[in-house]
Specification:
408 residues, alpha/beta, Rossmann fold, 2 domains, eight-stranded mixed sheet, six-stranded parallel sheet, 15 helices, 43% helix, globular
Amino acid sequence: MTPPGGSGRARVGVVVQRYGPLVAGGSESLARAVAARLAADYDVTVFTSCALDYVTWRNELPSGRSADGPVEVLRFPVEEERDLDAFNVLSESLYGRDSSREEELLWLRRQGPYLPGLVESLRQRRAELDAILFFTYLYYPTVEGTRVAGERSILVPTTHDEPPLRFGIYAELFSRPAAFAFLTRPEEELVRSRFDLGARPSAVAGIGIDPPGPADVEAFRIRHDVAGPYALYAGRIDAGKGCGEMLGHFDRYRRDVRGAAELLLIGRLAMPAPRQPGVRYLGFLDEAEKSAAMAGARAILCPSPYESLSIVLLEGMARGVPALATARSAVLRDHCVRSGGGLPYANADEFVEALDLLVADARIRGALGVAGRRYVEREYAWSAVMARYRQLIEAVRYRALRASNPAT
């Protein structure tokens, strides 16, 4: 199929709030991975901010055009840094009551990143792009960008059940895209329960998980003085991610179980470092060290009730390490049940019993590990994931072509 208005390779835009090798966020990492792989078949341009930090949205990277391998990157300055305390006060004032559209738009702007320059660039270049992928429903670039992208937009919402999802501005947003790419079936079910998507094309595209390479667990143990069994939490260490509750459950486990394992925490701290027995914070580790930490763990702990996918859970399963995940997340519970590679817990009693089982019983741990590895290989191979993205892009290209040339 020839792109509208020209020949050669089709052109695809990718809109995401942060982008680049220094950005560790889940949706941002997904956007970069998808953009790089799409560049094998399409000319890809990323529209993003100059920010690295999602808390302040402070401009830290130069604006303008750059390249990330074969991908063109256009960066736009954030026009207002976020005052997190003031934003939290505003959020709390809106979450518990009906809000007006004006209040919600103010909230969206205060949340950031406020990028009117990005939206204007999309408006100017819209006709050049055959399809535009928007990653994450929540932020200003997606809400305002889909308004100008119209029938060329594909939304990758990375949705979970959270208070802003009831805002009217998001009902408007979900009415606009031409197609949707979801990460999991529970995410799609949540979105369809809230919004009328009609017959617009959609797919549970997921995310690709690379086959794990070799990991030197023994060297990791020596470097970090880890002698016995351990469970691992990897990711942002934040009360909003369920870490406070997890630490409380783990304290109960240490009191109730003789010969209990340690809990190792790796990632960025967004709460005071825990100082309870049996818990150690190892800091932010590079990928090789993180991979070794995962490979040696008896279980990967996934406590966040708000998840649209959980890359860490899937990376652990790819290494044959079972997950211990909160049942309060429909996505995490679905991973555990459909894969047979993890155990969900609903309360402290279930957490203690399940963790004790995973630490102490090698036979059960091994069986769960095999099931989890097969699940990731079956559902989350990059070849399968990218085939789903390409199918959506071609559907949107075809619809846009028909709209601009009714006789075709």
